Amino acid sequence: MKYVLITGGVVSGLGKGVTASSIGVGLQACGLRVTSIKIDPYLNTDAGTMSPFEHGEVFVLDDGGEVDLDLGNYERFLDVTLTKDNNVTTGKIYQSVLDKERKGDYLGKTVQVVPHITDAIKDRIEAVALIPVDGKEGPADVCVIELGGTVGDIESMPFIEALRQLSFSVGKDNFCLIHVSLIPVLGVVGEQKTKPTQHSVRELRALGLTPHLLACRSAQPLLDNTKMKLSQFCHVEAANILNIHDVPNIWHIPLLLRNQNAHHSILKQLNLLSIATPPDLEAWSRRAETFDNLTDSVRIAMVGKYVGLTDSYLSVVKALLHACIACSLKPSIDWIAASDLEDDPAQSAPEAYAAAWKSLRNAECVLVPGGFGDRGVSGMVLAAKYARENNVPYLGICLGMQISVIEYARSGSRTHMGSTMRLGSRRTLFQTPDCVTSKLYCNPYYVDERHRHRYEVNPDVIGVLEEAGLKFVGKDETGKRMEVLELPSHPFYVGVQFHPEFKSRPGKPSALFLGLILAARGKLEAYLTRHQNGS
């Protein structure tokens, strides 16, 4: 197994996840099979209990793993299906070591960070790297590892030591370290400053790891003299100093790296030049250019709880982007805090109330995404009501589906609490091949999508709701859980218990997001007719 390790320095939030994903894309384009591991040094065992305000969205995998949003980036960029084991956390490592200690597996020895924790980290990395994630048999050629946080953080020290040991044990031809760092520009002087990166690399080298490549984040392209200083003082060849400057959209990053021959430097370090092919990134080039040249936009009202941090709905935003580009449109998202639509702000915050309703009324379609807790539910119900009564295309996801049921029932919540979360990929059976959802999925029988919910629609009220006109066109394999609802009298009014955004990919948009955007432009009927005729 060949390993590419991505570390970060100076500040957090530099885009290590996108860099790691883009490097994976470049290696895939050279004909190699790639897998990914994200190391999160926090003590949580997984991201399931984390607040979206603090950590962004919780990404859900096929196997039910609740993981860091960077794994969503890996899946979208590399078009792979990862497992919960691909997200390694301090919590998981310590839990496994303590479980072994309680069972007596260490034969009475003193259990310590070195060697027991570091050995557990190495063993976990080497085992997870062998798991196939691309639908083919056997392990991948290269495993890209992203170490979360910033070099020097106390919590990441055991991982740094374990990775130092791993680099030594696998040999220099099987390990490539890329350090992502910031090159700031001071406003007064206007000069690109290399000192923070120098210090970051010095700290990394003091811990026993020497970077083979530097990936430098900056607002503008790096100047030649900046590169020379970095090369001289960071002990990295000038050809191996990559510049990831700001670009119009992140699909340019794999192309930016390709244009700087990043793939060649990595393949050379890993002794893979003899088996790799020249990188084929035609599809990425087309995609990035198409996005840059779009002029027409579609207005989407996103009515949610966590609109203060857009990363809370990262996969939904990406799924909207994929669907819009498939329709040659740019997404123009109006973020509406659900609570601003409610009656209370009309008196306490009239400006926010007026702005929220203006955004909703100006939207061409409405999307209510998932969420937990009862804050903002009344506002979401009002948004669903507005969309239903005014024939505005509506897509409700998870909580958004339950909101549409509550609104239609007119008599409060008709849901009940399950004892545990329902997670991962589950099958939904369509009750009729004539429903819009089955036509969009191009499958009259079923669809497999990922779930993350605790509430469900009470089956006792289904009959009453269906008599009133709401149709539950998708159910689980027991027939008791409602998975998809539609309002046949409406241009597009769909609620789904699952999360279709998690499986959306560039060039392969989620069927339901595509349906929403097509409906917003009045093109859904023509699209469905075309596809039914096999064209």
Automatic annotation (TrEMBL):
Q: Which InterPro entries match?
A: Class_I_gatase-like, CTP_synthase, CTP_synthase_N, GATASE, GATase1_CTP_Synthase, P-loop_NTPase
Instruction: State a single Pfam family of this protein.
Output: GATase
Q: Which GO terms describe its biological process?
A: 'de novo' CTP biosynthetic process; pyrimidine nucleobase biosynthetic process
Q: Does the keyword NADP apply?
A: no
Reaction catalyzed: UTP + L-glutamine + ATP + H2O = CTP + L-glutamate + ADP + phosphate + 2 H(+)
Occurrences of domain CTP synthase N-terminal (ranges): 2-272
Please state the pathway this protein functions in, per its UniProt record.
Pyrimidine metabolism; CTP biosynthesis via de novo pathway; CTP from UDP: step 2/2
Q: Which CDD domains match?
A: CTPS_N (cd03113), GATase1_CTP_Synthase (cd01746)
Q: Name one GO molecular function term.
A: identical protein binding
Q: Keywords in UniProt for this one?
A: ATP-binding, Glutamine amidotransferase, Ligase, Nucleotide-binding, Pyrimidine biosynthesis
Q: Where is the Glutamine amidotransferase domain?
A: 309-517
EC number(s) of the enzyme? 6.3.4.2
The protein's matches in PROSITE patterns, at most eight in alphabetical order, are given as: GATASE_TYPE_1 (PS51273), PROKAR_LIPOPROTEIN (PS51257)
Record function comment: Catalyzes the ATP-dependent amination of UTP to CTP with either L-glutamine or ammonia as the source of nitrogen.
**PANTHER family (UniProt xref):** CTP SYNTHASE
Q: State the similarity comment.
A: Belongs to the CTP synthase family.
Q: What is this protein called?
A: CTP synthase
Q: Gene symbol? A: LOC107949559
